[in-house]
Write a structure and sequence with these properties.
The protein contains 20 helices and no strands. The chain has about 425 residues and is mainly α.
């Protein structure tokens, strides 16, 4: 069954069939190959997966992000990021990195981050004299910070398959997100010094920076409030997601006063569409997960790894390699839902903390988002910059080095994974 499942799934991916549809068809093919199991198991497992209470947090966090970015708040965030780092060498490129940190605390989605920031900052940087390929590469890599800074959609998905606290995962994602940001800022600064990138014109003074920080403070406060509420057990992640929507509505209606009924409707439609895509992948992966459990694939893989690789460091290295390769070909939600049930038992067998595994998994798959051939943020950024994938990929190597360095640190230094 597992052989048929894998063959049909990858064959359909090679034919450009959407991931969710490939998972459903492959699951049905595996059941038919067995001959003793009814096909309705696929439908049963798909709908059983939707009964998870924590999944309610997904659409609400997405809606909160869309509401926050529907009005002038997005402009305020970009203005604050530009004022904060624009005066330094590589400041225009650094604006993308800082913007990704603050946007990540609102959206929790790398794709949303790459689209929202890239559509504004990439053309601006190209007009100022930055190479289009570098601007695209910087945006593609920096956008992945959004899936580490809370609230993080991938962290919620990992919590679904590992039964780990969402609050602990959110807290653990802050440090790697900030370390990635620091590394990318260093890349921007060094690139500007070595390649002579232009400086930003007329950076604001301290008063101007303070004014912009005050204007952007509602968005800057959101991830902090989410962490505080979860850390002290004031509310569950699902309840916090609803609070985030109310917070976003309050900020747009009463502070900025630019959240119209039309913008609210557009934000709801966008959040609903994004949730539908993710939920279809979640439902489809449930059928695959049931088949893998039925044939005891996770246990077999864990036994093979323990008997063949033996040493924990080698097993962690192998898991990283598998996740890096998977991230190059499979969308992030599907990769988490497929690999999570396999790696969780293995991590428990070698004494690897499951929160640390969640950070490792998200870091690996974040790198996959800007790695060919199926890098989502890579394609979005290249399209906006009107640069070829090859041109953008050539500019990505320093960003890959930063991502891999942070990944190795969190893989082998457990003390860096801070959680409750």
């Amino acid at each position: 069954m597992s052989g048929v499942l894998a063959f049909v799934f990858f064959a359909l991916l090679a034919l450009s069939v959407p991931v969710a549809h490939s998972l459903v068809i492959a699951s049905g093919a595996a059941l038919l190959a067995d001959g003793t199991l009814p096909l309705f198991i696929v439908v049963q497992q798909m709908f059983a997966q939707t009964q998870s209470f924590p999944l309610l947090a997904l659409p609400f966090f997405m809606l909160a992000g869309n509401l926050m970015m529907a009005g002038r708040l997005g402009e305020a965030l970009i203005g604050f990021a530009s004022a904060l780092v624009g005066r330094y060498p590589g400041g225009l490129a650094s604006t993308t990195v800082v913007g990704s940190v603050v946007f990540g605390g609102v959206s929790g989605s790398a794709v949303s981050d790459a689209s929202a920031l890239g559509s504004v900052l990439i053309p601006w940087q190209v007009r100022e004299g930055y190479p289009a390929g570098f601007a695209a590469a910087n945006n593609a890599a920096a956008a992945t910070i959004a899936i580490l800074i809370p609230p993080s959609i991938p962290m919620i998905l990992y919590a679904l398959v590992s039964n780990v606290s969402v609050g602990a995962l959110f807290l653990a994602g802050v440090l790697p997100g900030l370390m990635l940001a620091a590394g990318f800022l260093l890349v921007c600064w060094l690139s500007a010094r070595l390649r002579g990138f232009p400086l930003a014109a007329d950076p604001p003074g301290r008063r101007g920076l303070a004014r912009l920080a005050f204007t952007a403070s509602p968005a800057l406060a959101m991830p902090v409030l989410v962490l505080i509420v979860l850390r002290f057990g004031i509310a569950t992640p699902t309840e916090v997601s609803v609070m985030a929507v109310l917070y976003a509505l309050g900020a747009g209606l009463f502070l900025y006063r630019d959240l119209t009924p039309r913008r609210i409707w557009a934000a709801m439609v966008a959040a609903g569409s994004a949730t539908g895509v993710v939920m279809l992948v979640i439902m489809a992966s449930a059928a695959v997960g049931w088949i893998m459990t039925f044939v005891q694939a996770p246990q077999a893989f864990a036994a093979w790894a323990l008997s063949t690789l033996r040493e924990p460091w080698a097993i962690i290295l192998a898991m990283n390699g598998i996740m890096l390769i998977a991230g190059m070909f499979i969308d992030l939600p599907a990769a988490i839902l497929l690999l999570g049930p396999i790696f969780v038992p293995l991590a428990q067998a070698i004494g690897l903390d499951l929160v640390q595994l969640g950070v490792i998994m998200v870091l690996n798959l974040a790198i996959g988002l800007y790695t060919p051939p199926v890098g989502t943020t890579l394609f979005i950024s290249s399209t906006i910059a009107r640069a070829s994938i090859v041109t953008t990929a050539r500019e990505l190597w320093p960003f890959w080095l930063v991502g891999l360095s942070v990944l190795l640190l969190f893989s082998y230094v457990p003390a860096l994974t801070v959680h409750a």
